[in-house]
Design a protein that fits this description.
- By secondary structure, this protein is an alpha/beta fold.
- It contains 12 helices and 8 strands.
- Strands 1-8-7-2-5-6 form a 6-stranded mixed sheet, sandwiched between helices.
């Protein structure tokens, strides 16, 4: 803007009156600062009255686009130094107080002392500097506990002290951990899996042994594998083989039974699923004893290839199960109620 023709206060007043609806914007800060300095010198700001100073302030505010506070700040600087010069410098920004060496030293300290808590490590750093005069701990001696944990989360620290927790086992929520109480009613099964041995790392057939707790009625079947594909059809068939309604299904904590597919099958049939309690080996003792007295006695311990599972299952259903339930005597408990 060329304002050389504005030389008096009256011209300033006329300019403000005629440009009340006009807005100005400076081209650069350096140019604007230089223009304001020139106006103050040209009109002799120091010797002007209060009213005239107000007109000059309004004039500079109007043309520069700065706020009234900023104009007064620049005028104050001019009155103090006689010049208005912009201090051109980049901001310093945030400087790092703790270096990479400090983080590496913290990692070594944690390793030596076994990953103590933040307050304990902070105290160790303080003693290393103040008591033992170790210059490496000079900066770490004044670190806060919260920032110590920030350094532990840094990439440099994790590269040195990478630590991975092992996967923690989680108890399955499928089934209830308790011993079933049939109260003398048939329909509460005890179920277990028996493996027919390995041969050079090759698995043999598996037996699914289901025994009723009260009547000792037993259904034994064989499968190639204990995966859901082979196990679910056999369990459905086993349940239909019993001559009474099945009310309970108790097993150990094996994943072949404690899974969503088996739980869904039993839930559809309104059968209660329970599983053995921890460190209670007697919870499933009935079927465990049947594994030895029936399965191992009649089928032995020798390896039977998995491909013969359908043929073995046919033998069990047509011959062994009828013999066990109709021709082979066995002991069973009698329930007596005290008077």
């Amino acid at each position: 803007m060329n304002d050389d023709q504005i030389k008096t206060i009256e011209q300033v007043r006329e300019f403000l009156t005629g440009t009340s609806s006009v807005k100005f914007s400076p081209c650069s800060k350096e140019g604007c600062y230089k223009w304001i300095e020139g106006i103050l010198i040209r009109f002799g700001y120091r010797s002007r009255t209060k009213t005239e100073k107000g007109l000059l302030l309004d004039f500079m505010e109007k043309v520069s686009g700065y706020s009234c506070i900023q104009i007064k700040r620049l005028v104050k600087k001019y009155l103090k130094t006689g010049r208005i010069k912009r201090r051109q410098r980049a901001p310093k920004g945030f400087t790092r107080r703790y270096t990479q060496e400090d983080i590496r030293l913290l990692a070594r300290t944690d390793e030596i002392h076994g990953d103590l808590s933040g307050p304990a490590i902070k105290k160790i750093c303080e003693r290393a500097w103040r008591v033992f005069q170790d210059a490496g701990y000079e900066r770490l001696a004044g670190i806060s506990v919260s920032h110590l944990y920030n350094l532990r989360r840094s990439g440099t620290y994790r590269n040195i002290r990478a630590h991975f927790d092992k996967t923690r086992p989680k108890a399955s929520k499928i089934g209830e951990r308790r011993k079933p109480n049939p109260q003398g009613k048939p329909g509460y099964l005890r179920v277990d899996t028996v493996h027919q041995g390995d041969l050079d790392g090759i698995k043999g057939v598996y037996y699914i042994n289901a025994v009723d707790e009260v009547t000792q009625y037993e259904i034994l079947c064989s499968v190639e594998r204990i995966s859901e594909r082979y196990l679910i059809p056999v369990l459905e068939m086993q349940i239909t083989q019993f001559p009474f309604v099945i009310l309970g299904f108790h097993t150990d904590n094996g994943s072949e039974y404690i899974n969503k597919r088996v739980a869904g099958l039993l839930n559809k049939l309104l059968i209660e699923l329970t599983k053995s309690r921890a460190r209670r080996s007697n919870d499933n003792a009935l079927v465990e004893s049947k594994n030895g007295s029936i399965v191992r006695k009649h089928l032995g311990y020798g390896h039977i290839p998995q491909k013969w599972a359908p043929l073995v299952n046919e033998f069990l259903i047509n011959h062994l199960n009828p013999y066990l339930n109709h021709h082979r005597p066995c002991f069973f408990p009698e329930i007596k109620t005290d008077s």
